[in-house]
Design a protein that fits this description.
Layout lengths: L2 H26 L7 E5 L5 H9 L4 E4 L2 H13 L5 E4 L8 H4 L3 E7 L2 H11 L6 E6 L26 H10 L3 E7 L8 H18 L5 E3 L6 H6 L4 E4 L1 H4 L3
Parallel strand pairs: 1-2, 1-8, 2-3, 3-4, 4-5, 5-6, 6-7
Helix pairs in contact: 1-2, 2-3, 5-6
The structure holds pyridoxal-5'-phosphate (PLP).
Amino acid sequence: MTLPARRQELAANLARVRERIERACAQAGRDPAGVTLIAVTKTFPATDVMQLAELGLLDIGENRDQEAAPKAAAVAAAGISVRWHFVGQLQRNKCRSVVGYAEVVHSVDGVRLAHTLATAAQRRDRPLDVLVQVSLDGDPERGGAVTTTDAEGSAGDRDLDRVLAAVAAGSALRLRGVMTVAPMAWPPPRAYAQLSTIAAQVRARYPGADIISAGMSGDLEAAIEQGATHVRIGTALLGSR
Ligand SMILES: *Cc1c(COP(=O)(O)O)cnc(C)c1O
């Protein structure tokens, strides 16, 4: 596809997604300014990121460092400045790379990961915003810290309270809130209602942790209804992967 044709396609998709967000906010009695749209550009080229930036969408999400790092470098080399959100499962050996370009990491779900990220972030000139990813069903395959406890009364490295404390203790990290990926088998309203309850408990203990990152292409309305402040949209903006 030529660049102008792709630009038109992205502009039309963006208009549709913004309309969905506005309608969902109206339904929920919320101000659309309270919902940040993040374009998840995984598998799509850096040129798409540049076009989205020119259309005014400056919050960009990626889920793999191997792909995100070169893309961030290409966008920066073009003189375009965006805010990179790292939304995928993060391996500890990628922390040094990710802190080099990300403004926000949405997916911290372990105590050791929090410590490694905190050490890596010390090289930055400003703190790194961090969300703790919450697993609502405890499925270890999909990532996320858990609130359920084992026989000893702790979920170990992935215990939500311990992960929150580890992030909050990192001087180069700012605990900004929670994120989830809705479990496949759950109706989205149930998932996002449960996240909303957890988010309120987290906010009561950490007042700066007011971000709720929830909602994707198929279920952004349910997420906004339950208070999402950040929606992560791939397919509806970029097309199918
Ligand atoms: C890919 C991805 C999204 C976007 O999903 P779509 O259904 O394409 O909108 C959101 N969040 C995470 C963590 C992702 O990996």
